[in-house]
Specification:
single chain; 687 residues; alpha/beta; six-stranded mixed beta sheet; 24 helices; 21 strands; globular
Length: 687
């Protein structure tokens, strides 16, 4: 379940924009929703000139160029020091191959994810010193390497830091520190990834910047898409240029990897979901240099070998990831206390630390709560977490800094190291931090507008194409179609996906909901539902057809926000936290009767909270009451019941002798707690 957020539409402004610029109303609407209402902004968004702000406007870029040129003319050995994720690998490949192309004395180094971890380390610096390196250029790391930069300097190695992560109070004592998030930065654009900054450095070094964009933009584009930086401003231009370059890339390994990934259409989405995971798989499970060499090799046989190896690692990564995800879901479903917490935290020594960040994203999406997954080790354990918009998980982690060995990240994602002996203490402390909020922010889906199903056309899809590339900061539009009758559910791909045939008035649409089997789908045929969809088109037998992908579903007109807030109150109550709203959420006997009648007369294996409440049709029944009633019925053995996220699995017991609600300990405790809350309110009012 997610909160549905509909964009506000200013119809007057939309019509004025369409009229003044000669745009279709649908295009004008999407522009207004994205805050683009003046001619220049719109022109810049739709056009691509390949022009970038001069890189010398970035702080310390002049110092970096001067030092690199000195090293070049003196034939000093330069090392490009990268990172093991897709952004770090593409940034390393970009800067190394550029410096090699001008005959600089250059090598590269990427630390091992497991043995060394992220960023610079002194052992690596010692190895580079023995190899005769005189200048280190970091890409996608280094802004926090204060001690390591000082250590390199003691050994006679200069360091140039290029990074895009948030700066600390103090900058490294490097020859140059290029980071768009410096507080004294003067350049206009700040949202580059590591590969984007590597591209800017190469442009600054080159007399012919156009050739740099032509030769290296595909690497910068892959890094930009993979690292989830906003696809706006210069990033949009980098990605546009790179996607064009990818159509006919001269990098043999990249061409083979595109083919191995099954990518027949170059798009930001395909790069994000098919190509980037294969590059990341090398750093997570294999040898990161396989990914780097894929970009650098000119040998056709080796290029194909690297592409096949990365695709094989990605299959292995998916298998490991699915095993961990299923393991965690089993743990959480078996122990409801864990999902009642405001931040879900689970740990095991059986989970590969290289993929737990991906799994955390899935757990957060499934349960609608921030999650932290810990890979246990005998002493120092590694963890990764993901959040929901509106809750800064990094701030929550920082509040527990005294229990951690290492930590970092941003509001939506964190990484940390913790001693095994501190895990339980950490779980308690970080949830106490979250418990200070009255409510946690809700997982949401943002909708551009509601469409009439009879008016959806291929022309709309063609207008959407002008807004590409889609990605972080420029999401693919999502639309609502409401009050649709669910006519038929058809399994696809041996039950892995489903096709939903829906209708309203004269309109008939076929939609695809991926990664959902018929047994997992809680809405029965005949239901009235609202559907959040994205639009696309398929080409089949010489003709284009509309294609619809389902993002979210809810019972028609259902107030998901109210239900999600009540579900939080329910989870808090299970942990012993009494909400002042309990007095208004007490279930009446009529609510018990309505729920029991419905589940007896509508037997099915899987329900959802919204479908069940809407089906019962009671004006007084909400999520808190429903979940408490099901707990009480389960205790009284009137039903068999388990809750897995928003899915409610209910089986009705054989009719037996009449039972009394007072026979339930849960019921008696609820009455007692509500009375205590009521008294507390009275006393509070008197004081």
């Amino acid at each position: 379940m997610k909160k549905w957020i509909m964009s506000e539409l200013d119809k007057k402004k939309i019509n004025e924009l369409a009229s003044s610029l000669g745009l279709p109303v649908f295009t004008a609407m999407l522009l207004c929703i994205r805050g683009m209402t003046d001619r220049k902004t719109i022109s810049d968004f739709f056009s691509y000139e390949g022009s970038f702000e001069h890189p010398m406007k970035m702080k310390d870029m002049d110092k970096a160029v001067e030092r690199i040129k000195d090293a070049y003319y003196s034939n000093e050995k330069i090392c490009v020091y990268g990172d093991y994720d897709c952004d770090g690998v593409t940034a390393t490949a970009l800067l190394f191959s550029y410096l090699e192309s001008i005959s600089a004395n250059v090598c590269y180094y990427i630390p091992d994810r497991g043995a060394e971890g992220y960023g610079m380390n002194t052992d690596a610096i010692d190895r580079l010193h023995k190899d005769g390196v005189k200048l280190i250029i970091t890409v996608d790391n280094g802004i926090a390497a204060l001690k390591e930069v000082d250590y390199a300097k003691e050994l006679g190695i200069d360091v140039i830091v290029t990074d895009h992560h948030k700066t600390q109070d103090k900058l490294p004592n490097a020859v140059a520190v290029i980071d768009p998030h410096r507080i004294d930065e003067t350049a206009a654009f700040h949202d580059y990834c590591g590969a984007g900054i590597a591209l800017k450095l190469a442009i600054a070094l080159e007399a012919n910047p156009v050739s740099v964009i032509e030769n290296y933009s595909e690497l910068a584009a892959i890094g930009t898409i993979a690292d989830l930086v906003p696809l706006s401003g210069e990033n949009r231009d980098i990605v546009k240029a790179g996607l064009l370059r990818l159509e006919n890339t001269e990098r043999q390994g990249l061409s083979d990897l595109l083919r191995s990934s099954g990518i027949d259409k170059i798009s930001a989405g395909n790069i994000a979901f098919r190509l980037a995971p294969r590059i990341n798989a090398a750093g997570r499970l294999g040898n990161v240099y396989d990914a780097l060499e894929l970009f650098l090799t000119e040998d056709e046989d080796k290029a194909q070998e690297y592409a096949e190896k990365l695709s094989g690692l990605n299959v292995k990564r998916q298998s490991i990831e699915n095993d961990i995800y299923n393991d965690i879901c089993s743990i959480l479903d078996a122990d409801p206390r864990l999902t009642a917490e405001r931040i879900i935290i689970v740990s095991s020594e059986d989970w590969n630390p290289g993929v737990i960040g991906i799994v955390s994203s899935k757990i957060t999406e499934r349960y609608g709560k921030p999650s932290i997954i810990i890979s246990e080790a005998p002493d120092i354990c590694k963890a990764s977490g993901r959040s929901v918009s509106g809750f800064s998980l990094v701030d929550a982690v920082f509040s527990c800094a005294d229990m951690l060995e290492k930590y970092g990240g941003h509001p939506m994602a964190v990484g940390l190291s913790i001693r095994r002996s501190n895990i339980e203490k950490f779980k308690k402390a970080i949830n106490e931090y979250a418990d200070k909020l009255e409510y946690m922010p809700l997982l949401s889906v943002k909708l551009d507008c509601t469409l009439k199903p009879s008016q959806i056309s291929l022309d709309m899809v063609e207008q959407l194409q002008a807004f590409e590339p889609f990605g972080y900061g420029n999401p693919k539009p999502v639309f609502a179609i409401v009050n649709m009758r669910l006519d038929k559910i058809t399994p696809l791909s041996e039950g892995k996906h489903i096709k939903l045939s829906v209708s309203r008035d004269e309109a008939r649409l076929n939609l695809v909901k991926f990664s959902t089997s018929p047994d997992e789908f809680p809405y029965p045929e005949g239901s009235l539902i609202d559907i959040a969809i994205s639009l696309d088109k398929n080409f089949y037998r010489g003709k284009d057809y509309l294609s619809f992908s389902v993002k979210e579903i809810r019972a028609a007109g259902f107030d998901s926000e109210a239900a999600m807030l009540e579900t939080q109150i329910y989870d808090d109550y299970r942990r012993g936290k009494l909400n002042p709203r309990l007095t208004e959420l007490y279930p009446e006997r009529s609510d018990f009767a309505a729920v029991y009648r419905f589940v007896r007369s509508h037997p099915q294996s899987v329900y959802s909270i919204d479908m069940l409440i809407s089906g019962i049709g009671s004006n007084t029944l909400g999520a808190f009451k429903l979940l408490m009633i099901l707990d009480i019925f389960s205790e009284l053995r009137l039903i068999g019941y388990t809750r897995q996220c928003d899915q409610l699995k209910i089986s009705v017991a054989e009719a037996g002798s009449k039972v009394q609600l007072e026979g339930s300990g849960i019921y008696r405790k609820l009455k007692e707690d509500i009375e205590n809350v009521r008294k507390s309110k009275v006393l509070s009012g008197l004081s």
